[in-house]
């Protein structure tokens, strides 16, 4: 099939690459000339395992090309995918200006039947408006259909996720559009759910919001475990083996971040209030996520008291999760900024996100290190902030030798508590009791997001 993919961010670039790898002829379009010329040389603007090989190979095979012209990209395409960004606006709602601009531009060049598909995460009702914009701006009487085809890729594993998807969602009002989309996806063998446009749009938000809810739920269980001296990792394992619950997204930590969950949860909450409904559960999910980070920092504040000022901490991980260089809404960055605000000096390391982090953190009180062991050298304590697998297998003896004091604050429960404590570390994790330290939680030690926002 001939396809056009507009937008070369995570969704568009991975989508264009994999569609071409399936044997389709794909043109990727982006207004950013620099980005396009980088991609054409195989220099990916994002770190995504396996992506550059697929892009280069399909360019070589003549199935994948890139351009800055929508007119050129969509010329022979049967399907046009809209994959532009929908960032969070000041109201919490998604900013759809890029989607509207692309819809208008498509209508200017539409000369024969095409299916116009939104892959960007967009609130309920957006595809209907895309259809209206195109109808209003059409230059001639051309037939077209719109469809909603949300994606469920995770950064860091998006190549695999796209090839091995659990399901494909296609929303449309037209049987002709369903037929076209089936030709693209049915070889995957996984279920294709065909539904109306609005339900397809809601499936995406409901899925992300549910996963975020699972994380906030286990994070609250972790808070109780800490106080009641239970171990949240064991609790999550015991829960997750129940197939009705499932073990995914039950890792307690310092909260979810990234370019999707925070924005999509906020956007769904905004949709609910727009529909005159107060989605109370989702409000709590957001609040718990913020509190989780504060509770973690508070462990260090309580352990060191006023002496936290001037302490040197090693910080492992800057990206919002492992296997990505993306620092958007990264809780690690928030924690580092908070510790710096308390007067600590920080030695930071991340396998991929150092350059991105430098741009937002700057140099003040921060030393950028070459490795995890370098970041641990001479420090008062080590903070594990991102779940990179290489941190899991660190040589604990070497770490201990390098550090000034053997203290670890593990915000991702990445390390093995008994192994770490066995060699003499004081180990603070999430939802676990710390050996040798009297509970750091005081009665009524519950923080509200209002307190957090005031920076206490
Ligand atoms: C998420 C969804 O998982 C994808 O299905 C969706 O397509 C994507 O958003 C999107 O809407 O584009 P992503 O943001 O790449 O993918 O990352 P996740 O792997 O979902 O992790 C999100 C955050 O939750 C990270 O900060 C991670 O550290 C945190 N997390 C995840 C936990 O704290 N605990 C867990 O058990 C899992």
Automatic annotation (TrEMBL):
NAD(+) binds at residues 30, 35, 86, 121, 155, 263, 328. Its EC number is 1.1.1.22. Keywords: NAD, Oxidoreductase. The keyword Oxidoreductase applies. The keyword NAD applies. Transmembrane segments: none annotated. It catalyses: UDP-alpha-D-glucose + 2 NAD(+) + H2O = UDP-alpha-D-glucuronate + 2 NADH + 3 H(+). Substrate binds at residues 152-155, 204, 249-253, 257, 321. Pfam families: UDPG_MGDP_dh (PF00984), UDPG_MGDP_dh_C (PF03720), UDPG_MGDP_dh_N (PF03721). GO terms for molecular function: NAD binding; UDP-glucose 6-dehydrogenase activity. It comes from the Bacteria. Gene3D superfamilies: Cytochrome c1, transmembrane anchor, C-terminal, NAD(P)-binding Rossmann-like Domain. SUPFAM superfamilies: 6-phosphogluconate dehydrogenase C-terminal domain-like, NAD(P)-binding Rossmann-fold domains, UDP-glucose/GDP-mannose dehydrogenase C-terminal domain. Residues 314-417 form the UDP-glucose/GDP-mannose dehydrogenase C-terminal domain. The active site is at 260 (nucleophile). GO terms for biological process: polysaccharide biosynthetic process; UDP-glucuronate biosynthetic process. Pathway: Nucleotide-sugar biosynthesis; UDP-alpha-D-glucuronate biosynthesis; UDP-alpha-D-glucuronate from UDP-alpha-D-glucose: step 1/1. Belongs to the UDP-glucose/GDP-mannose dehydrogenase family. This is UDP-glucose 6-dehydrogenase. It comes from candidate division WWE3 bacterium RIFOXYC1_FULL_39_7. The lineage of its organism: Bacteria, Katanobacteria.
